[in-house]
Design a protein that fits this description.
This protein has 282 residues and is an all-alpha fold. It contains nine helices and no strands. The longest helix is centred in the middle third of the chain and has 35 residues.
């Protein structure tokens, strides 16, 4: 156990003192660019089955996971998107998904580069294969985000509509958060499986990094929320841009958690006798 913790600490140190923060910042930028059209797609999908203006009423409790400023920003964006007429929702859905996939592909490419640095490997895969992987990661990420939004947003609405489910409404609302953790954890594991360039004769480790990344993501979200609410007054320094700054920080810390998880996996591979990865860099 001591060896594992020591490996985790060494991995975190390598990530923070290396190029991890810079690569995380670049990835976070593209992730933010993908987030806005994704929210538009969420509103468009919700508007096909219900009143789009009521979507923000089902986000109660989201501030227990994300910083309040992030939730406020998301709700404000959802309200802005919902102000469109119903007849435009289908076109909005298609356009938003196209823009979101394109931006998310750029974020996936930057994240792959960050994880390749964590594993100290060069990506010799065919360019078309890399494009396919980035598109797959981007599409899967957007799909997972949409599923999460359905779970967090639509589940309370379904419970309220169907009388049969009203007796288990509290349980259903509580189950949203374990589902959120499980989806994020599985998404992290899948990302560590396919994103870094493979090395021959090395068993890819994914679960430890996924656990660390998910735990760090939850911890960073909580600490950022606590810092913004109790310590820092971003309104004084950034004024109307305060919420945007907090959103940028949250995306940055989220991506940095993924990068640190990649370093953890790579460190565990090396500690279990994997070949020296520095030779793969030439």
């Amino acid at each position: 156990m001591v060896t594992v913790v020591r490996s985790w600490l060494h991995a975190a140190r390598s990530a923070l003192l290396g190029g991890g923060p810079v690569l995380a910042a670049g990835t976070a930028l593209f992730a933010i660019l993908a987030a806005m059209p994704t929210l538009a797609a969420v509103v468009a999908l919700y508007g096909l089955v219900s009143d789009a203006h009521s979507i923000e009423s089902h986000l109660a409790g989201l501030d227990t996971v994300l910083p309040v400023a992030v939730v406020t920003f998301v709700i404000g964006e959802l309200e802005r998107q919902a102000s469109q007429s119903t007849g435009q929702l289908s076109l909005t859905l298609v356009t938003s998904l196209v823009v979101a996939v394109y931006s998310a592909r750029s974020a996936a490419g930057a994240l792959m580069e960050a994880l390749n640095q964590a594993y100290r490997v060069r990506d010799h895969r065919h360019p078309l294969l890399r494009i396919g992987i980035t598109l797959g990661i981007a599409s899967s990420t957007l799909l997972g985000f949409l599923i999460l939004m359905v779970v967090l947003v639509a589940l309370p609405a379904v419970v309220a509509i169907l009388p049969v489910l009203r007796d288990v409404g509290d349980l259903a609302n509580w189950l949203r958060w374990p589902v959120l953790f499980a989806v994020v954890f599985c998404a992290q594991a899948a990302l560590y499986r396919v994103a870094p360039a493979p090395r021959p004769l090395v068993r890819r480790r994914i679960w430890s990094g996924a656990l660390v990344a998910t735990g760090l993501w939850l911890l960073a979200s909580y600490l950022l929320s606590l810092w913004v609410d109790k310590v820092a007054d971003y309104q004084v320094f950034y004024g109307a841009f305060a919420s945007v700054v907090v959103v940028i920080l949250w995306f940055y810390f989220s991506v940095l958690a993924i990068v640190i998880g990649g370093f953890v996996n790579a460190e565990l591979e090396r500690s279990h006798g994997a070949p020296d990865p520095s030779r793969s860099m030439v």
